[in-house]
Amino acid sequence: MATQKLTAEARSDTGKGASKKMRREGRIPAVLYGKGQEGVSLSVGGQDVFHLLATPGATTNILELEITESGKSVQKNVLVKKIQKHPFREEVLHMDFLEVAMDKEISVMVPIEITGESKGVKEGGILELKRRELEVVCLPGRIPNFITIDITPLEIGDGVHVEDIVPPEGVRFTFESNFPILSVVTPAVEAVPEEAEEEEEEGEAREEEAEGKEEEKGDEE
Question: Is a pLDDT exceeding 70 seen at residue 221?
Answer without folding.
Answer: no
